[in-house]
TrEMBL record:
Protein's name in the database: Acyl-[acyl-carrier-protein] desaturase
Quaternary structure, from the entry: Homodimer.
Primary location class: plastid
Cofactor note: Binds 2 Fe(2+) ions per subunit. Binds 2 iron ions per subunit.
Amino acid sequence: MALKLNAINFQSPKCSSFGLPPVVSLRSPKLSVAATLRSGLRDVETVKKTFSPAREVHVQVTHSMAPQKIEIFKAMEDWAENNILVHLKNVEKCPQPQDFLPDPASDEFHDQIKELRERAKEIPDDYFVVLVGDMITEEALPTYQTMLNTWDGVRDETGASPTSWAIWTRAWTAEENRHGDPLNKYLYLSGRVDMKQIEKTIQYLIGSGMDPRTENSPYLGFIYTSFQERATFISHGNTARLARDHGDFKLAQICGTIASDEKRHETAYTKIVEKLFEIDPDGTVLAFGDMMKKKISMPDHFMYDGRDDNLFDHFSSVAQRLGVYTAKDYADILEHLVGRWKVEKLTGLSAEGQKAQDYVCGLPPRIRRLEERAQIRAKQAPRLPFSWIYDREVQL
């Protein structure tokens, strides 16, 4: 959200029109089969164009991690069990979406929905744009679990592997799965948004995947997730604050609970990278520098609703203007991680490692200068319609 990445130029799928079959077919069965195959191939091409982004996808090195580095993660199995799995929450103690929503078994169900809709009437459209964007990001969870399972040395090899890394990935996914649900149901019940357009956006996003450029490397991957979990903690925390400001304390509770989960997950991922700095400082600082040079792309940067080719840019502009997630936050997160991992104090690095160290430590001030320019541009931003809110216009 902080860095304005261009959205992807998808082509909308075209639906075939079907007429009544002729009373008598003059074509041979072979010709009919051939025509059907040609039609099927055209449909396949349409799907490929729809879900194969034309921009912002980079040619990646794959499986870039040296084989001996994989052994580091195998050796960390016991450490992960004792230090990472502790950041998972007992299911029975986890708040569930239904804790925050009208109870369908209650006699007051319809009154509760009416009350929710009355509260939602007081919330401005630009807030709903950001809330929808955050919800869509959470609903693209299948992509994120897939991404974690591309990393060498820590993936869930069987789908039910008993390794600590695999248990973490599945249980993290299960906890994250609770985030999109209450936001989705709240938005549905509010009556303020076009759910069909939102549902299409979710389908497009999951079908398009993401391009974090982590090269199947958990070094790069855990740096990426450390950054991302803190970013989502900040974003959901700010949507909670704004919901309170607009008088919807139930919605604030939903967003605040999600932010609390993201904070726990951030703690786990930053501990992993901290351990990597302890075991392999040179390799880890090189990965940190590499990830920051590539820039941390938001997981929803392929966002598309079937209409707006620059939907992610437009959504992130609104988030920037409202202060939900900004370029300043991006710089603050980087500065936080540099301090958390004591990057400035690393010694004994290679020449390349020292260059990476200097780069990441000097990056936050440069990003803050970009933030100042972004604020100037934001004052001149136009108003644009968003399909999520029935094409009502919002200032970017």
